[in-house]
Design a protein that fits this description.
3-stranded antiparallel sheet, Aspartate Aminotransferase, domain 2, 364 residues, Aspartate Aminotransferase, domain 1, 8-stranded mixed sheet
């Protein structure tokens, strides 16, 4: 994405919705004047108290001291892993998935065992047998994303129970990346956090996906006070703090007055964009598989090629100037991830170009 997203006419790699303009967070001149009066000093390094209060209110039983604000969820994942695990420890990692934590664990000398979501006709479910095989007596952490990126699957109650049971069996932590909570397509009920379901849960959140504010680079980890100091120390070494303006705007975004409107906006994009992709998939079912994505601003679909899908993706980019994400970047070849949270005309034109390429390739 970093290499090509600004080089194409249509970028369908985004996993969040069309970004919120700053004016929508500053609805009046008083809010703008407050922003202009901010001194550009360091903010409180774990996050300003009002911001941490707003975040804590999203998690049953959490208090501000359970919250550490980070530079995006990406820092939260990295410093949490570094704080709690050592080289040689084992991590059980759900695939398909955003692979950052998988890569960081390998780079740190840890062993990564994967367990899987399995797909049938576009619908995904946890393979509980693979979970049991992946979690061994040496497993220190089980990592999931819920709702899942890239499939949009929301873990069912029995799947959550299986995760907790596996973690309890070996005393492992559960790291749950919940940045897509709030992007639900089929319900107005926000996906519940795993926080509070088990005493060794680490919940990761962010403003980038469900809130449409990736440019603020503001994330967080919710953890027990017993381990928070270890994570906070690594945050100090990695970044010191988030940006002063970002934490100020994040406090506004997560306030009770503003937050519901941001979630409603995100769901509107998801619910208007997915039918376009679904219709396109039905029209092009000879080439691409279905998707029943339940959340997230994306669809994860089978492609006409089941091996070396990255080559296929680059052929689309070169021929039609459209960029999508190959499934092997999530640990699964033969699939691609398409954005669904973009402006309708932009999204439809990008999809049409992909269909053109598939039809031309089939008749070549």
């Amino acid at each position: 994405m970093a290499r090509w997203e600004h080089e194409v006419d249509y970028n369908l790699t985004e996993s969040g919705v069309h970004a919120v303009p700053l004016r929508d967070l500053l609805p009046d001149s008083c809010a703008l004047q407050e922003l202009l009066a901010i001194e550009l000093s360091y903010p409180q390094t774990d996050g300003p108290l009002p911001l941490r209060r707003n975040i804590a209110s999203l998690y049953d039983g959490a208090a501000p001291e359970n919250v550490l604000c980070t530079v995006g969820a990406i820092e939260a994942n990295g410093i949490t892993l570094a704080a709690l695990l050592d080289p040689g420890d084992e991590v059980a990692f759900l695939t398909p998935n955003y692979m950052q934590l998988w890569g960081m664990a390998l780079n740190a000398g840890m062993r990564v065992n994967t367990f899987n979501l399995r797909e049938t006709d576009g619908s995904w479910r946890l393979d509980e047998e693979s979970l049991q095989q992946a979690v061994t007596d040496k497993t220190r952490l089980i990592a999931v994303t819920n709702p899942n990126n890239p499939t949009g699957h929301i873990l069912r109650e029995h799947e959550i129970n299986a995760l907790i049971s596996a973690a309890e069996r070996v005393g492992a932590w559960i790291l749950t990346d919940e940045v897509y909570s709030g992007t639900e397509r089929l319900t107005d009920v926000q996906t519940p956090s795993l926080w509070g379901r088990y005493d060794k849960v680490l919940a990761i959140g962010s403003l980038s996906k469900a809130y449409g504010l990736p440019g603020l680079r503001l994330g967080w980890v919710v953890a027990s006070t017993e381990v928070m100091d270890q994570i906070w120390q690594r945050h100090e070494y990695a970044a010191i703090s988030g940006a002063k303006l970002a934490t100020h705007l994040a406090t506004i975004a997560l306030s009770p007055e503003v937050r519901p409107g941001l979630i409603e906006r995100t769901r509107k994009y998801v619910r208007e964009g997915f039918p376009l992709v679904d219709s396109w998939l039905r029209e092009n079912s000879d080439h691409f598989g279905p998707s029943e994505s339940e959340a997230g601003a994306f669809a994860f679909v089978r492609t006409p090629v089941q091996d070396n899908v990255e080559t296929f993706i680059h052929q689309i980019r070169e021929a039609k100037s459209v960029l999508v994400v190959p499934g092997n970047h999530f640990g699964m070849d033969g699939y691609m991830r398409l954005s669904t949270g973009l402006e309708a005309n932009y999204l439809q034109t990008g999809l049409d170009r992909i269909a053109e390429f598939a039809n031309e390739s089939a008749t070549a």
